[in-house]
Write a structure and sequence with these properties.
This protein is of the alpha+beta class. 37% of the residues lie in helices and 35% in strands.
Length: 150
C-alpha cells in the first residue's frame, strides 16, 4: 500500500468519529434555539423570531403561527428597547419531541415608561415549550404559561 492510500484510509476511518464528536447534541441545539430567539426578539427581527416557530403551532390559548406573527408585529410596533432574560430550568428530549421549561423576564419601553411585560424582578414567568424536530432543526409547536400581551 502506498503512503497516499494509507492517508485516505485513515481519513475515511476517522471522518465518522470526528463528525460524531463535533456534531451538536439535541440539547445544545435547543439551547441555541432559545438563545437566538431571545436575541431576535431584542433586535425586533420578525423573520428570525418566526423561524423558531413551527407552521403547525397550536396551543390551549387558540394561538397559531399566523396569530403569533401578527401579535409579535404589534408588540414590536408598540415596544422599544426589549430585553429578554431567561434561564432554562429543564430540557427533556424523547426522539423527535422535546419539552423545555424556562423562567422568563421581558423588560421593554412603551412610550416613556419602562417596565417588565413578562415576569418581574422577584418572580419570572415560568413557561413550558413543546418542540418537534424537523430534520436537524428544533421548532416550537406549543407554549404553556404564555403572558398574553398581544
Amino acid at each position: 500500500m502506498s503512503r497516499k492510500s494509507i492517508i485516505y484510509l485513515v481519513i475515511l476511518i476517522l471522518s465518522p468519529v470526528i463528525i460524531y464528536l463535533l456534531w451538536p447534541s439535541d440539547e445544545s441545539r435547543i439551547k441555541k434555539l432559545f438563545r437566538e430567539g431571545a436575541k431576535a426578539v431584542e433586535q425586533e427581527k420578525m423573520d428570525e423570531v418566526m423561524a423558531k416557530v413551527s407552521f403547525n403551532y397550536t396551543d390551549e390559548y387558540g394561538l397559531t403561527y399566523l396569530f403569533i406573527k401578527e401579535g409579535m408585529t404589534k408588540l414590536f410596533q408598540n415596544m422599544e428597547n426589549i430585553k429578554v432574560e431567561y434561564e432554562i430550568t429543564r430540557i427533556e428530549i424523547k426522539e423527535k419531541a422535546a419539552l423545555a421549561e424556562l423562567d422568563v423576564r421581558v423588560l421593554a419601553t412603551h412610550g416613556s415608561d419602562t417596565g417588565y411585560i413578562a415576569g418581574d424582578l422577584s418572580k419570572p414567568f415560568h413557561m413550558k415549550f413543546s418542540l418537534e424536530k424537523e430534520r436537524t432543526t428544533w421548532l416550537v409547536t406549543k407554549t404553556e404559561g404564555l403572558p398574553l400581551t398581544f
